[in-house]
Amino acid sequence: MRKFLLVIATVLAVGLSGCGYNNFQSGDEAIKASWSEVLNQYQRRADLVPNLVNTVKGYAQYEQDTLIAVTNARSKATAINATPELVNDPVAFAKFEAAQKELSGALSRLLVVVEKYPDLKANVGYRDLQAQLEGTENRIAVARNQYISAVQAYNVTVRSFPSNLTAMVFGYSVKANFTVADEKALAAPPVVNFGGGAAKPASSP
Residues 117-142: what's their mean pLDDT? Predict the structure, then answer.
């Protein structure tokens, strides 16, 4: 009896492996890891915003609308509970992406506004915050690209034969993904040119 069960277990293991079951497991883990990194970098950016706003406020008192827009965008972005399950909900994922995009836009406008204030641009505290923000934006771009790649590989497995049969049996479905149309723009956040002149895009990492 034990030999019979061992044979059955072996056959099932080989069958599951051949039909893509193991690929689903490894793919799911890759998505979780890359999604966690995306969230870490977005949180890092959110943590920089209050100090950035307060620093700018001390020099640019006439830019209240821009500062309020940044603060409100941060509130919207951090209010979303971005759990690992969010990648399985296209609607919730789209809201998350939209909120982060709104914050990106608000920060971009803030950095452009700063160009009008030479004293602020020369402030050591601001320069440090701006450098941290630039680095974080680059890390966000890298993390997003890794997530996009992981999800694309997983979704191909979900749709391909014969692994699509395994997907139907075990209830695996495609994961939500970032839109790739503006990835290049996201990978090049505006950077304040401390030497003067217009803001320039950062080079991709």
Answer: 95
